[in-house]
Amino acid sequence: MNANPFLGVFFHWLGGLAAGSFYAPYRAVKKWSFETFWLAGGFFSWIIAPWFFASILSRDVRDVLSQASWRTLVWTYVFGAMWGLGGLTFGLSVRYLGMSLGFAVALGYCAAVGTLVPPIYDGTFTSVILQTLGGWVTLAGVVVCLGGIAIAGFAGMSKEREMPDEQKKASIQEFNFRKGILVATFSGILSACFSFAFAAGAPIGELTRAHGTDALWAGLPVLIVILLGGFTTNFIWCAALLIKNKTAYQYVSATTRPAAPEQGGAQPAAEPVPMLRNYLLCALAGTTWYMQFFFYQMGMSQMGEFHFSSWTLHMASIIIFSSLWGIALKEWKGCSAHTRRLLSAGLALLIVSTIVIGCGTYLKETKKPPATEAVTR
Q1: How does residue 64 score in pLDDT terms, banded at 50, 70 and 90?
Q2: Residue at 216 is within a domain
Q3: CA-based, 20 to 30 A from 373: which of 28, 112, 331, 358?
């Protein structure tokens, strides 16, 4: 299948829309702790959705995975597990900083590390990217993207300085800037391991194509292994919290268990829990979360030799749509004109960066190699 960079950019935008939107259903979950709804949604994100879509859109999934080398499977899984730690703390970043600032800070680190390290490690950064006009244009798009992420982050910090504590708490109930920044930094660096996991799982994609699957869907079996690693770390952490906080009962109880009353006080009444609604919201959030990588692997298949830029496109798209969600949820209400201009400038740069990267990849894909030009003449 011939690469189509602009179609790839569109797929990455769809993935960014999914990633920037997935947390919204979690906000509507009632009477459940974070670990309860995060793990419930995670079963759909990391187990159910990957197997479902790979089974219906790619051929011989079980045979492909059984034929992959143990080295490929182990490294893909390990990087997936490391990324899972980043994904787990990413949810905490949103809790403490809100969707706008939480996404911007975490994904800023994630974009820089996940985009530049793989091509530097495998040698294509100097042998391919720096040797072509398309490579330089694509690299310029990456730099523009990182600049847009930085400006969006400055807008978030400006908002934090301007908003009174009461207003922060009204839109973000657990707002904590210092804790949120530390968690977002840790999350962003480890989340970049997803890019490494996809590179490690490239042989699985090759096997998938060899079994007759179209290149557009060849990354789906790779996602099964990566997300299994993510599931492992998230399951261990959430299980520990369920035990520590004694919240595992929430999966089966239709009422809350109120805390013990203070001495001499009345016993708080148990409250009803919308069980079906909570499970449906978690299923929606988890599946929506998975769709970011469903479209990511589709977009990556269209980026040709400059597929490293897919990670930048993914990050840019996520920040664009998460910022729009933040605006819709009134997280930026009451901010100064200066802060709103910073946010607008950051989003504009991110949009421009996706177009520049698409143009750079298009230049590489449409340029004829010297041998072909000689034959044509």
Answers
A1: very high
A2: yes
A3: 358
**CA-CA-CA-CA dihedral for 358, 363, 369, 370, to nearest 10:** -160
Query: By the 8 A CB rule, do 98 and 27 touch?
Result: no
What's the distance, Cα to Cα, between the start and end of the chain in Å? 26
Tens of pLDDT along 206-256? 999 999 999 889 999 999 999 999 999 989 999 999 999 999 999 999 888
What pLDDT score does 375 carry?
39
DSSP structural state of residue 329: T
- Structural domain including 126 reads 5-255+272-366
- C-alpha 308/C-alpha 85 separation (Å) is 22
- Both tokens of residue 5? 């960079």
0.85 exceeded by the pTM? no
Beta-carbon contacts of residue 71 (< 8 Å; ≥ 6 apart): none
Q: What is the largest CA-CA distance in the chain?
A: 96
Does residue 263 belong to any structural domain of this protein?
A: no
Radius of gyration of the chain from Cα atoms? 22
Residue with tokens 């509507």: 28
Closest by CA position to 114, among listed 177, 191, 175, 186: 191
Q: What is the pLDDT of residues 126-149, one digit of tens each?
A: 776 777 787 788 788 878 877 887
Across 37-41, 65-69, 284-288, 353-357, least confident range: 353-357
Domain assignment present for 289: yes
Residue 161 CB-density burial (10 A; 0-12 exposed, 13-18 middle, 19+ buried): exposed
- Evaluate the CA torsion angle 121, 127, 131, 132 in order and state its sign: negative
Backbone φ and ψ for 30, nearest 5 degrees, come out as -115, 140
Domain count, the chain: 1
Give me the residues paired with residue 272 across strands: 255
For residue 307, being part of any structural domain is answered with yes
> What is the phi/psi pair of residue 247, to 5°?
-115, 5
Of 76, 71, 65, the C-alpha closest to 208 is 65
CB atoms within 10 A of CB 326: 24
Q: Which DSSP string corresponds to 322-341? A: HHHHHHHTTTTTT--HHHHH
